[in-house]
User: What shape does this take?
Amino acid sequence: MATDYKSTLQLPETKFPMRANLPAREAERLEHWEKNDLYGQIISKNSKGQKFILHDGPPYTSGSAHMGTMLNKTYKDFVVRYKALRGFYTPYIPGWDCHGLPTEQRVVAALKEAGVGPLPTAEFRKKCQELSQKNIGIMTQQFARVGVLSDWAHAYKTMDPSYEAETLRAFAGFVEQGLVYRDRKPVMWSIPCKTALADADTIYQEHASPSIWVAFYRQDDPNTAFVIWTTTPWTIPANVAVALNPKFDYVELEHDGKKFIVAEALSEKFKAQVGWTDVKKGKTVKGVSFEGLKLKHPFMSHESRVVLADYVSAEDGTGCVHTAPGHGMEDYMTGRQYKLEIYSPLDDEGKYVNDGRIPANLVGLSTLEKGGKTSPANEAVIAMLKASGHLFAQAQYVHQYPFCDRSKTPIIFRSLEQWFIGLDKNNNREKVLKAIDTVEWIPPQSKNRIRGSVENRMDWCISRQRPWGVPIPAFYDESGRRYIDAQVIRALAKKVEKLGTNIFFEWSAEKLLEGITLPSDWKVDAKGLKQESDTLDVWIESGSSSFSVIKNNPDMSWPADLYLEASDQHRGWFQSSLWVSVVNTGRAPFKAVFTHEWVLDANKQKLSKSKNSMSATEMIKKYGADVLRLWASSQDYTNAIPLTDEVLTHVSNAYASLRNTLRYELANLNGFDASKDAVKPNEMWCIDRWVVIKARELVKDVTAAYDDYDFAKVYQLISRFCQVTLSSIYHDAIKDRVYTCGKYSVERRSVLSALDIVFNILVRLLSPIIPFTADEAWVYRKTDGDFSEESVHLQDWPVLAGDWGAYETVAKDFDELIALRTKTNEKLEGLRKEKIIGKSLEAKLIFKGSLPAPLKIYDKKELSELYIVSEVQLSESTGEFAVEVAKASGYKCPRCWRHVSHAPDVLCDRCERTLKTPTEHTHVSQQKIK
Ligand SMILES: [Zn+2]
Assistant: This one.
């Protein structure tokens, strides 16, 4: 019986675990990092480095992060970890957006449940503050658990007194330039939230509105009417005009003994829509000639009249536009031009008020559409118009309509007094657009989105009728006159810096203004004043963050190097930050802005709206943070990002394959001390040099991809390297040398020297993406154990020492030799099918004909290893190049299984030598080195 040589082989062995229990082990590592203050160590390591400031946009303190927010935090973490490895000084201060309605609503619900009545405002605000603080604690743990490395202890909160003071100072900049004004005009109103909203508080979604065609008869000719079309029947009571395009031709349609006027271009469509067949076309007149004509309102006592407006289009409707200046922005502008009444007969709950003008049957009816049904107000108005014969037809009209992002109900436009910021005063809109040009937008097409949202936004409605926020620092006297002044606001900010904004709800105006000199033009005494109760739009607060967090902090540098958020922030934080910064400093608060799209669930719904998706915490428990991070890196963030079981299964497999690659290298490197055992590049086998050169190319390409924030490319490059270069070529080819050559033989040390270099490159390149696994592997390489004081995250970005450039030709030659493997493997497979051989080591390869140059340069034992055969023969001639295979001529060595022995069951020469000096360092053999 043959001797068993297994115990004399160098078989790979490691305690580095397989994938099991990944989530639990991540949690332990996190604890270890926190105990060792890894963040603090990285910061002090790079304290002399160039600064790179990624300024964190504050997520809302909702109490639970979904995967969309996690994705954003993860991208930020990729950037910060990468820059830190590159030696940048990267203080990263996370932020929290604390004020706002959802917190209020939860506090109200909790108080109601506890049977506590309404609290005084200051008390109520304290409850809101407590809830925000509690949620910050929960969400900090969630973000930290996914591996986000940051200065959690010094996070900024928009409810901190120092932050609130900075918000007020930033706001003072707007006041100083005279941009802040109060006016009565239509604003977007959320009925359930009982507050005005800004653009960024709304989302557009598909909505079916009742559309109606209504006749407005001429006062001077009761048989002739203009026909309007509207999708908001409830605004008919507030109609004061019908707008025509001055340039359009309008045609009289005779029907049922009456004449109806519509735009000629729309007349055929109109007839079809209302179902009229017996129509006679009358005369055609230009819109401009009807200007000023008086019309009878279908049921209100006030009159309506014809006005002209260029925005009247020939796309929808009749070309005669129902105009209610109290309920729409364009209508309002037209109303101002024609000095029309801005009539808006609704209360805060969106119900018709009893003002002596609204018909009794409408008073108290709500305009709120909910549960997919139209509102009682719409129904009643339609019924009235039908009964009086003014309504010709009605239909469902599906369009994109703004919804309140909090209550998820359609907003209404409603006129009331609010504070506004005038965006066009002092050329500010132009200045913001110019500032946009100074910023790098990633991806480049996002520049159009920010330009579009700056160009199109209306004057900024900044007052909210809610208590949980930073109060608008204005005052009013007994007559209701409003006072606001930049110097007064700055003096108040000093008080707020110490005491917080609750003093606005605890103190009288007199006490608030104590010690503050009032501007002489106020001509009032503080005693006669009251403070404003509205609060500022929270976007002004978060938009001031770069001042509070970076500009005022000497440890940082302003403007920030990067803002990184989801693409909806073009309307939100990017924009508010631009306005606040440009108005106060004349320049953008960021040098570059990186946006990514939204995460969609299996039903292609945004995760923020998805009902069935798992919370981020559940996902981490199931998959582990590194799998989710790998998923984040693998996705094309310029399009909507799918998060489904299929995608996660795929990424999970990719993770397992990466982990196995690291594990294989660790198992072989076990016991290899590079400082003592490594061989120099010129002593290495050529394939070992080849893999190092490949790893060096990988570093170059991956570095460029990280610099471009192209994480999907990082993922692809590393995955391909692991799967192709390592798993299917290199790891396969080196098995013979690593397992069977002497532990300290130069052949074996050559492989391990290359593996050590490759491993150290791989874990560093992977560490921003899968920080837990990379650190775990790195520590195992150092200690063969779980934890160490040291960490891969405290290392430098890989730079290859030594003159590897000299071996680029070797690498090219090996690329050529490796390309031949397709042919050699095919031939070997043929021999296997014929049952002539089992393993490829039982075969020899014969290269015939005009041979590719590299075949003639390199040592045959290297070629045998590369093709995993026992022998390589060259038979050069002028004939065509061909590969042949045959059974190897030697006998199987019982130890290395290569067919190179002289007789059966006899050790080959190499194994014989190896067993004589199994543990001694051997000298470099005289190999053929190019
Ligand atoms: Zn052998």
